[in-house]
Amino acid sequence: MYEEAYHKWYSQKIGRDFEMLVFGHGGIPVVLFPTSKGRYYENKDRGMIDAAAWFLENGKLKIYCPDSIDADSWYNKSVPAWMRPVNHNMYDSLILDEVLGRAFYETGHDRAVTAGCSFGGYHAANFAFRHPDKVRAMFSMSGIFDMSAQMDGYYDDNLFYNNPVDFLPNDNDPNLWNMQVALGTGDWDICLGYNYEMADILSQKGMSYWLDVQPNGAHDWPLWLEQFPKYLSLI
After folding, report:
1. CATH code where residue 45 lies
2. CB–CB of 67/39 below 8 Å?
3. How far apart are the C-alpha atoms of 98 and 225, rounded to whole Å?
4. Run of H or E residues at 195
């Protein structure tokens, strides 16, 4: 069996308590984001951690499952649109300093893997492409890469720099070309088009990537449970 640890702390970044589950005893750190407004225990409850059991038990990977604050950021219709990416910036800072900071200290590594399903795929991609010096691989499963639909027509720099389809084409950070990228989707996936669009952006930049379109694959956990360990085996 693999180790499991629960962490709760007061985060200065968001001004309240934050929770996270961590699995494994060592190896490359993997930050596995939950789906839309999902909680830190979602990936465990849905079987994603069990799908990676071999890697955890053999000390290949250590998986960090942070909570989300989507209800305060992209899905928060009770605040003006400009506040949604601002709130997300706080989350990005929390992941960078408090989650990756812990992961790097605990594992001795200085670059991580980001991964996630559905809206978690957005988080994995956005964080990886914003911080390519900290991320060695990004695995998105049925991800979405354009947040403009969450903004009620409003647009500003905070949206631009959290919208991979906008900021990535002209980003020339050399670390981007050293990153492994897998875009997992299925031919019945509601997010299939977003993945073709992202693949086109990566292709035009000359970045290496794997667009993995599964026959009869739908936007649901059975597809992601199959894809996650397959992508982990790449590292």
Report:
1. 3.40.50.1820
2. yes
3. 27
4. helix 192-205
Domain count, the chain: 1
The CA distance from 231 to 225, in Å, is 11
Q: Which residues contact 168 (CB under 8 A, 6 or more apart)?
A: 129, 201, 205
Domain coverage including residue 25: 4-232
What confidence tens digit (pLDDT) does each residue in 2-28 have? 999 999 999 999 999 999 999 999 999
- pLDDT-derived band at 41 (thresholds 50, 70, 90) equals very high
Answering whether pTM is above 0.90, one says yes
30 close to 61: Cβ distance less than 8 angstroms: yes
Half-sphere exposure of 150 (CA within 13 A, CB side): 26
| DSSP result, 27-94 | SEEEEEE-STT--TTHHHHTTHHHHTHHHHHTTSEEEEEE---GGGTTT-TTS-TTHHHHHHHHHHHH
